Amino acid sequence: MTNIIIAGAVGLILSMLGTPLAIRLLTRRGIGQQVREEGVQAHLGKRGTPTMGGIVFVLAALFAYGASHLATLTPPTVSGTLVLFLMTGLGAVGFLDDFIKIYKQRSLGLRSGAKALGQLVVGAVFAVLVVRQPNVYGITPAETRVSFLRDIGPSIGIVGFTIWVLIMIVGFSNAVNLTDGLDGLASGASGVVLAAYVLIGNWQLRNNCIDQLGPNCYWVRDPLDLAVVAAAVLGALIGFLWWNAPPARIFMGDTGSLALGGVLAGLAIATRTQLLLIILAGLCVIITLSVIIQVGFFKMTGKRVFRMAPLQHHFELKGWAETTIVVRFWLIAMLCAALGLGLFYVEWMPKP
């Protein structure tokens, strides 16, 4: 538990103090947000706001994770390291995307194919490594099986599992990216899910099969360290949200949104709660579905379901204030996380 507290506290302090420094540095170098002319007109006033702020909380989380292990004299684990690798790798892909936007002064960065390729390469490395590296009890960070509240069904093989992991990684990194359309929206929504994984990792630690073998125990390799990772990123994200909340003084950019999607997918895979993430991150899933519905319906009928997609912009065009949308969407994110945690707990409860 000490590791979790230290990771969260260090991440919070580093991000809280580091973000205003990043704002000044990025402003001085003219690294600002590009806004599409055909987008929501109210967003034109945000042009030039410092972006690529995701660098701050990614670095803060990495330092916080290291500090927690240094303070407690415990070595990093394979599971924690792999999840942080996934977060950092996808953050690097997002950094390239943001850099190209700024360098070429346009709202589009990497071509979709190049961006997807970067996500797939990082995801494939993670997928291969996560089913290896067993501990002394033979438990690997993940099994080649699909999981909901724990692993379910037979093995789908390394090829099938790799494809499944890639779908998760690309899907959720893009889902957080789509959610990042209003000040503080993606930060708050992702923070709620990270808080849920702090609880899940801690619960799996207290009910692991190594210490107390039973019908409801969990075969998870490093549950405590996964909670530490979640706490480190959560603390760093809260510190960033202080400056990213509406009206935002800095944006996370694709650097931050892809990194957040990666760490959420990584935590789900390593805690054996892959399908549960769909519920925990329900807001991001809903927003992604709104884009799929909009595009699909328009291609079939030539008409739109929403005034604009992603969903948050539909409500903007209906006249809702940005802060109203953000706060209400945060509430939806909290309800989704609460539902997911409720299912997780109910499944564990001893049967009479």
UniProtKB/TrEMBL annotation:
Identify the stretch annotated as signal peptide in this record.
none
InterPro entries attached to this UniProt entry: Glycosyl_transferase_4 (IPR000715), PNAcMuramoyl-5peptid_Trfase (IPR003524), PNAcMuramoyl-5peptid_Trfase_CS (IPR018480)
Q: What is this protein called?
A: Phospho-N-acetylmuramoyl-pentapeptide-transferase
- Coiled coil (UniProt feature): none
- Listed EC numbers: 2.7.8.13
Specify which residues bind Mg(2+) according to the UniProt entry for this protein: N177, D254
Q: Which organism is it from?
A: Nonomuraea wenchangensis
Name the family the entry cites.
Belongs to the glycosyltransferase 4 family. MraY subfamily.
Give the matching Pfam families: Glycos_transf_4, MraY_sig1
